[in-house]
Amino acid sequence: MPNKYLQSLMVINKSKNLNWKSKLKSKILSLVTWFLWGYLISFIINHYDSIFFSPILDSLYFHEIIGIMVLIAFILIIIAIIWSYITVRRRKK
């Protein structure tokens, strides 16, 4: 196949030539996303005291829950690294 033909099939080159439906969907999704970010920020501003200074879950505050989430994410990363070492050793045998 000629090189020009393969380039014409690439998605990168077609992004500039999208039809109006795809452009409209992209714009609508972008607007909805920005609206949700704005709503989230305004919600946090309006309910700042109840989010950050009162217990959310039983007697746990927001910063404690975030700390637990970071710890769990760190443990999952360590488990994934260990698992990758185990599977690489099995493939080499």
Could you explain how this protein is built, in words?
By secondary structure, the protein is mainly alpha-helical. The chain has 2 domains: 19-54; 56-93. It has 5 helices and no strands. The longest helix is centred in the C-terminal third of the chain and has 31 residues, at 62-92. The radius of gyration is 24 Å and the shape is flat.
Summarize this entry quickly:
The protein has 93 residues and is mainly α.
In whole angstroms, the N-to-C terminal distance is: 40 Å
The largest sheet is: none
Coarse shape: flat
Number of helices: 5
Give the domain tally.
Answer: 2
Number of DSSP-assigned strands: 0
What are the secondary-structure elements, in order, as H or E?
HHHHH
What is the residue-averaged pLDDT?
A: 86
**Residue share in helix:** over 70%
Give the strand content: under 5%
- Find the structural class using helix and strand composition: mainly alpha
Rg:
24 Å
The low-confidence runs, each spanning 5 or more residues with pLDDT under 50, are: none
